[in-house]
Amino acid sequence: MRLVLSVVFAILIIALLVCMFFAKKSKKPIGNAVSFVLAGLIIPVLGNLILIATSDKTYATSGCYIYFLGMDIAVYSIWHFTLVYCKMGKPKTILRVLIAVLLGADFTQYILNPIFHFTFSIEKILVENRPYFRLVPYTGQTFHRIVCYGLFVSILIVFAVKTIKSSYVYREKYAVMFFSILATGAVETYYIFSRHPMDTSMIGFGLFGLLVYFFSLHYRPMKLLDRMLAGMASEMPDALFFFDENGKCIWANEPGRELIGVSKDNYDNIKDNLKYLFGDDIDFNSSGWYKRVTLGTGDETQYTHLAMRSTVDEKGHVTGSYLSIRDITEEQHEIKREMYRSTHDSLTDFYTKEYLYENISNRLQSDHETDYMVAYIEISNLKVVNDVFGKNFSDLTIKDIAKFIQRNVTDKCLYGRLSMDSFGVLIDKSNFNEEGLAKRLENYTVKDENLEHHILIHIGIYDITPEDEIDVSLFFDSARLATTMISNNYQDLIVYYDDKLRNEIIHNQLISNQVKNAIETRQIRPYLQPIVDSRGMLAGAEALVRWIHPEEGFMNPGKFIPVFERNGLIASVDKHVWRCACEILANWKERGINSFISINISPKDFYYMDVIATLKSLVEEFGIDPIKLRVEITETVMMNDSVDILKTVDDLRAYGFVVEMDDFGSGFSSLNLLKDMNIDVVKIDMQFLKDSERNMKAGIIIKNIINMAEDLGIDTLTEGVETAKQFEKLYAMGCKLYQGYYFSKPVPVEDFEKQWFD
Ligand code: C2E
Ligand code: CA
Ligand code: CA
């Protein structure tokens, strides 16, 4: 028996130690108080263990001391735990002092017992034929009992009051403590008064420690949980219906009752009502399903989400089920709005590029009857409109064109906005009227209250053939490529991507790749065409670029300049030609030749380089007089509002260059330009001259231009003079300089020099 008890105590101590360890580690605030209780309890249990196990008097005596001193600590720790467990806050100072004094006094009397012997001694008896040392209490022991019982009783009272006063969901937690302390106390009392030789009451203490551990740190009050869950269920915005295991509705929360229109205790018709509302196929006998049901139509449409789940008890047995119904209308609307936002352009309400591609792709896959093509519609001068007239006007332009597209498409078309300045349309071929469209595009203008501006629209078309693999983005890429081939801004607004265009694009790519090398090896170089005065004497020459291509042979600038103007390579070509011109001038200067050379400046040069700085540095590098380098700027550049050309011209002239206005009369020229612009020479376009043969008016205009220029102090040069008759006529009109096949075609520099200087 003693052995068994010893083992039981040892196990208890280990269990208490383990719990103490976990309580200490616990993150709950009460963890410390619990581990203190467990530590406090381990000491008397240990004392008791020694007492039971030993047959040696000294050991037994020390066991007793451990037991009694431990008891004081244990009682104190339980008192401390009670305060925390019951959330009593810090006790009054007087109470703390009282308890400290009482326990301290008790503690001291044990310490002093070996000297004064007035608390206890031990006597030897035989238990199971072995000596066992039993306690013999003296007066001091009574004090000990009063203190311990006093504290125990007060702790009991605290738990009793808490049990009675707290709400029923918490009652369990206090009642458990109350009864276990009561039981422990009862066992202890029994031991004390029965004088049973062996003290087993410590088992009760040990168990109490384990209960403290469990209830403080691991116990979840189920009643509390139930109550909370029920509260939550009633307050949920979702409608909830609970069914017992037989499928009978036992409870519905407020939103549920409202939805069905039933009173609180009348759940009889709920199932029928639910079926009436959400459809007969609602299955109340199974759970784990969910479905969406749409109620009503139009603006009144309500979207709901139904879910049926089962409830189970701790053992996993189904105890019933519940149906939750959530109104997801707002959610659904938000999803739809989000959908719309992500698939539609905010400015025009058109499809976005991705959404358009997706729609076109679907259409092409499903409709094999209709012949389709895609159109890439680009607002060619939107950037200029934006820069010059501001964002509002450019937004207006985009919206205006969106409306234009809507007006011009048929039901079968699909359209969207592809980028800042481009739209895409899937066109039903049989309903496409190219001529009509081109006409409407020709003079497309956008107006607001103050402004009216011509908008340049280019359209590239890719014709989809049945053999084509459906790749919408490729179709649009091709259509876009077609627009890049529109070189003359004011004609050919609609261009088709076809084999010819494709080859052209490939060819352009090829020659673009060769430019750098062609410049280095001087395959690209200027020819010179003489410019003569009215006596037929050489005045100067125009440098006109040529490409003597190893495979393609002789290439006129018309074949490559427009390509390089589009991709920016023009800047390198022009720089090279200008450099060659300067080289020639430097050479002429050495030879004492006085003629000038005119060079051409492309409108695009202004985008890709600082034209003035480049020219200055060339002139300085070759040490030539800038007056010998004439600069030809076309009339269209002069009219372009995006380049501050007036200032450029002034700067060029200030440095000493002679500025010529090229191709005068070819575009929408206005005579006013002559007045506004400080130029030195106006080059009258040869087309004008040709017209003057047939058209009397053109002749009169040339005469007037010459006269007006003369009045303004501007020299006139006519290009394209092919016959003696033309020359004579111009001479009679007072023209100063002449250029044309009549005098010479553009020729290689050596030929030119041979002809004129040798
Ligand atoms: P442009 O500046 O108006 O040059 C005059 C063009 O008319 C030259 O064509 C010349 O060969 C041609 N031409 C001269 N006299 C006659 C004639 O009596 N009858 C006819 N039918 N044509 C005549 P080209 O050399 O083919 O140059 C075409 C255009 O290419 C030039 O027009 C110019 O705009 C551009 N260009 C030529 N060289 C360069 C260059 O180095 N840089 C840049 N940016 N453009 C250049
Ligand atoms: Ca020219
Ligand atoms: Ca010209």
What are the defining features of this structure?
758 residues, alpha/beta, 8-stranded mixed β-barrel, 5-stranded antiparallel β-sheet, 23 strands, elongated, binds ligand C2E, binds calcium ion
Explained architecture:
33% of the residues are buried. A hairpin with a 3-residue loop joins β16 (538-549) and β17 (553-555). The model has no long low-confidence stretch (mean pLDDT 89). An eight-stranded mixed β-barrel has the order 15-16-18-19-20-21-22-23, surrounded by six helices. It is 55% helix and 20% strand. With 758 residues, it is α/β, with parallel strands linked by helices. The chain binds ligand C2E and calcium ion (2 copies). Residues 662-663, 683, 719 line the site of one calcium ion.
Protein topology:
Elements: H1 2-25, H2 31-53, H3 57-85, H4 93-116, E1 120-127, E2 130-137, H5 139-165, H6 168-194, H7 201-217, H8 222-235, E3 239-244, E4 249-252, H9 254-260, H10 270-278, E5 289-295, E6 302-312, E7 318-327, H11 329-343, H12 353-366, E8 372-379, H13 382-389, H14 391-408, E9 414-419, E10 422-428, H15 434-442, E11 445-447, E12 452-454, E13 457-463, H16 472-484, E14 494-497, H17 499-520, E15 524-533, E16 538-549, E17 553-555, H18 557-567, H19 570-591, E18 596-601, H20 605-608, H21 611-622, E19 629-634, H22 635-639, H23 645-655, E20 658-664, H24 671-676, E21 681-684, H25 686-694, H26 696-712, E22 715-719, H27 724-733, E23 737-739, H28 749-757
This protein binds ligand C2E and calcium ion (CA) (2 copies).
